[in-house]
Amino acid sequence: MSFLHLPFLFLIFSFDISSAIERDTSNLVPFIQPNDVVLQFRSNDSVDERIINLEANSYVRIRSINVPKSVAFAVVQAHSQVHRISMSQARKFDVGNHVNGTSVGILVDTSSSNSGVMAYLINTQPINITVLTFILYYDRSAPIPGGCNLEFEMPVSPWLRVSYNQSMVNVDHELAALPPNQGDVFPCESESLQYEVYHYYLVQRDFTEDSFFNAIRLLRTVKGAQEFGTEIRSFGFTPTTRSRFSLYPGVGQVFVVTVTHMGEPSRYAPSSAYIPSFTYGCDLSVESDCQTLSSTYVKVLCALSLFIGLLIAFAGHRYFQIEMILAGFVAFSAVSYVILVNHFDANVTGLAAGTSVMGLLGGLLWWFVWWFWGIPALSVLPVVFMLGFLMSSLLFYLPISFEFLTNDFNFWSAFFCCWLVLPVIFVTFTRLGNIVSCAVIGSYAVIVPIDHYIGSSLKYIVINVVRRATVHGFGRAVLDPPYQDNDLILTLAWIGLVISGATFQFLRERRRPPFSPPADIWRPLRWTRLRGTSNSRTEQTPLIMDSPSDLVPHYGTA
Question: 131: which DSSP letter?
Fold first, then answer.
């Protein structure tokens, strides 16, 4: 071969190499060259972590060095507050080798590899993202979280999948596998694995990134979950791995699942933790999505609730006819809302219009009942029943968890029994019951707008019961509301308003008739008196009609 052919051979070789490189990178996004993030091996009690600024359209390689041979597997994790990130076992995405989300991670088997722990953290967003990353290590006696995956993206999926709608948060996880040292032929069909589900609340309306990272730090290990988290449920082998929680928008909530191998003969039961996940119940990337007073309609409604609540709390019994109209309006609006949601596919505008019309008709109807009959024991039923409903809702709002209450029949039976206690008591003490009901309900109407403004959760005393009546499957949801400083302040304010409102009404009404008369109750009395004093007296004319004591009506409790 002549030396003249060497340049042509060199050009052909260079073309083949460049074509091969181009084919190999054809599926890759043009990322920036990676920077290694090296994490030192430490025990899970003192985790080595990094907070990195992951640039737009870039990736970094996370590595761990000095991993001892006693480590069987490691879980590499990365957490972002708002934006989605990706983690992969390789630079190139492929089916079954990567996961996307805000709290992601992969499990790396170190027992069969000498290359240590390595994963790629990828940002496909056009913005920089701040990410908390760390690695947890487990020995051969620890169960493998997500090792029996059936639905998630990767063969071993140690993360949680969190989703939410307008009423509930759903937390899904895959079943764990037995530890590698068991050598079980069917590692996914064992009843010796015990699961515990924990959650942890952030401070209400705290959307700072530091609080988010601190919450993840608290619950990333089994020990941290047991120490700082609240255990929600514990279960063994079950095909149902979904946990449901009542939604409280604007309150950050961390979820974590731990799995323990109970079949270990030693006293120490080895356990491992799934990757903790997080939600605010709203989208921080969408403006005003986490604000409760986001529309003019809601602001006007809260203002009306505040002023009407003050009127009812301190003068509801004095203006009895206004109280009747408002009580009928609220009662009929609530009933019509439940009926419309359960039996009609109505939008928000339709629900608002339907409940308003039915409430107005109900208020006028109940005012007509008082105008026509004037029976206090009958007329105070709506407001006393509202008091019973509120107190029963408060009882079931408490952080109590009974398995039999997940059944709708059991729940509503217990709820109605508690509901009827106060109406039965106050049916013979109508003035007392009416004043107390006005003070309690009016005070609650005052604190609800303040609750919306400062971000408390007392409004969910009623909302959770309405959800139970209208949302399918809400009976399986864990309520466990966040009770924090704002809630304590509003609770004390509620108690103070109830005491002051009831005291003020009792002092004001102590020398008045128990109930003010209906508008037209004087007309038949005046007509009867005129008939009794006319010249056309018969043997059927009452003999004591002209008695002065009978010219003024007497109002009692019945």
Answer: E
Tell me the pLDDT tens digit for each residue of 64-117: 878 888 888 999 999 999 999 999 988 777 777 789 999 999 999 887 666 678
For 153, list phi and psi in degrees, rounded to 5. -75, -35
What is the DSSP code string of 397-437?
HSS---GGGGSHHHHHHHHHHHHTHHHHHHTT-HHHHHHHH
DSSP string, 339-406: HHHHH----HHHHHHHHHHHHHHHHHHHHHHHHHT--HHHHTHHHHHHHHHHHHHHHHHSS---GGGG
Task: Count the neighbouring beta carbons within 10 Å of the beta carbon of residue 131.
Answer: 25
| DSSP strands (E only) in 80-212 | 85-88, 98-101, 103-109, 117-123, 129-139, 144-148, 161-164, 168-172, 175-177, 193-201
Q: Which residues, at least 6 apart from 488, have a Cβ–Cβ distance to it below 8 Å?
A: none
pLDDT value at residue 184: 56
Domains contained in the chain, number: 3
Q: Do 456 and 501 sit in the same domain of this protein? A: yes
Residue 516 in any domain: the answer is no
277 within some domain: yes
Q: State pLDDT tens for residues 505-544.
A: 999 888 777 776 665 554 455 445 444 454 556 666 666 6
Which amino acid, one-letter code, is at 133? T
Residue 518 backbone dihedrals phi, psi, to 5 degrees: -65, 165
Of 189, 167, 165, give the one whose Cα is nearest residue 178: 189
Residue that is last in its domain, among 272, 291, 310: 291
With 0.85 as the threshold, say if the pTM is over it.
Answer: no
Asked which of 99, 118, 139 is the last residue of a domain, the reply is: 139
Residue 50 sits in a domain of what CATH number?
2.60.120
CA pair distance 471, 350, nearest whole angstrom: 18
Q: Are residues 161 and 56 in the same domain?
A: no
Residue 360 lies in a domain: yes
Cβ atoms 85, 102 nearer than 8 A: yes
**pLDDT on residue 373:** 75
